[in-house]
């Protein structure tokens, strides 16, 4: 039952993200100066199953302004990683914050409750890569 | 539903959808590389085309009357447009990266660009701090 409620909330959230993202792309057309600030950020995932990763990647891509460019499969020691192309974010931190917010809502839908652990940061993942 | 309301609704939905397609196309000229062009086209596929489908459904509702068949068709069309355009954008962007399309040089940070294995990527001025995200 909670999953159903979270699912409706998630659909509404995605719909609102599509509308606001489209508005950003259109309104910035009429503003002078630099149009976009492209960046490619690395997002270590808390999603585990194929369904969660696929739904998260599709949700990111359908939101105007963010686009999944590459997916790295997870191993036993490190999580799967998405590389996301973001156009209108101020900094890498704000881009990651928005993406993790979306991921928390998605996991609340698939698991029935929001994950309690915080997402591991890129530096932690790179540290684990170095250790045998 | 009377004529005026139906005509206004069809006009608002259809023209908004068409304008979104137009502005997405203009935005594609304002960005510089293939990835950004795929990125700024998503208002057209994610919002513009569903709005045009909604306009067509309202027109159908007004001229033919309500039927479950056309409602089902409209809902499936909107759902499929969103899912298909999302998966298609994913596939396009991955194909563009894997085929080695150049990424706009001012893309910063670019976490996809890693030095090839075996290359020592230390800044000689600061040997203790390897360059982050180079």
UniProtKB/TrEMBL annotation, chain A:
Transmembrane segments: 6-30
Keyword Membrane applies: yes
Keywords from the UniProt entry: Cell membrane, Membrane, Transmembrane, Transmembrane helix
Cell compartment(s), UniProt: Cell membrane
GO MF term list: monoatomic cation transmembrane transporter activity
Membrane topology (UniProt): Multi-pass membrane protein
GO cellular component terms attached to this protein's record: plasma membrane
Pfam families: MNHE
InterPro entries for the chain: Cation_antiport_E
Highest taxon in the source lineage: Bacteria
Family from the record: Belongs to the CPA3 antiporters (TC 2.A.63) subunit E family.
Family matches, as PANTHER family: NA(+)/H(+) ANTIPORTER SUBUNIT E1, NA(+)_H(+) ANTIPORTER SUBUNIT E1
UniProt name for this protein: Multicomponent Na+:H+ antiporter subunit E
From TrEMBL, chain B:
Transmembrane region(s): 6-28, 40-59, 65-84
Keyword flag Transmembrane: yes
UniProt xrefs under InterPro entries: PhaG_MnhG_YufB (IPR005133)
Renumbered residue ranges of the record's region Disordered: 108-134
Key words, A-Z: Membrane, Transmembrane, Transmembrane helix
GO MF assignments: sodium:proton antiporter activity
Family, per entry: Belongs to the CPA3 antiporters (TC 2.A.63) subunit G family.
Name of the protein in its database record: Cation:proton antiporter
Species for this entry: Brevibacterium aurantiacum
């Amino acid at each position: 039952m909670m999953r159903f409620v979270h699912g409706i909330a998630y659909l509404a959230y995605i719909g609102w993200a599509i509308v606001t993202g489209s508005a950003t792309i259109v309104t910035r057309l009429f503003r002078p100066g630099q149009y976009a600030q492209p960046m490619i950020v690395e997002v270590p995932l808390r999603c585990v199953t194929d369904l969660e990763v696929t739904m998260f990647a599709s949700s990111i891509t359908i939101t105007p302004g963010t686009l999944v460019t590459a997916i790295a499969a997870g191993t036993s020691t490190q999580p799967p990683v998405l590389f996301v192309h973001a156009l209108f974010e101020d900094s890498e931190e704000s881009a990651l914050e928005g993406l993790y917010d979306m991921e928390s809502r998605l996991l609340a839908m698939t698991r029935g409750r929001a994950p309690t652990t915080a997402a591991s940061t890129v530096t932690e993942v790179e540290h684990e890569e170095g250790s045998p | 539903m009377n004529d005026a309301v139906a005509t206004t609704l069809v006009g608002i939905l259809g023209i908004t959808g068409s304008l979104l397609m137009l502005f997405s196309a203009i935005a594609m000229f304002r960005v510089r590389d293939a990835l950004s062009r795929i990125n700024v086209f998503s208002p057209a596929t994610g919002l513009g085309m569903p709005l045009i489908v909604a306009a067509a459904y309202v027109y159908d509702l007004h001229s033919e009357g309500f039927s479950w068949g056309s409602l089902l068709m409209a809902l499936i069309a909107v759902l499929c447009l969103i899912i298909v355009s999302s998966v298609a954008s994913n596939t396009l962007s991955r194909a563009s990266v894997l085929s080695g399309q150049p990424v706009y040089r001012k893309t910063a940070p670019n976490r996809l660009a890693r030095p090839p294995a075996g290359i020592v990527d230390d800044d000689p001025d600061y040997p203790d701090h390897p360059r982050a995200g180079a």
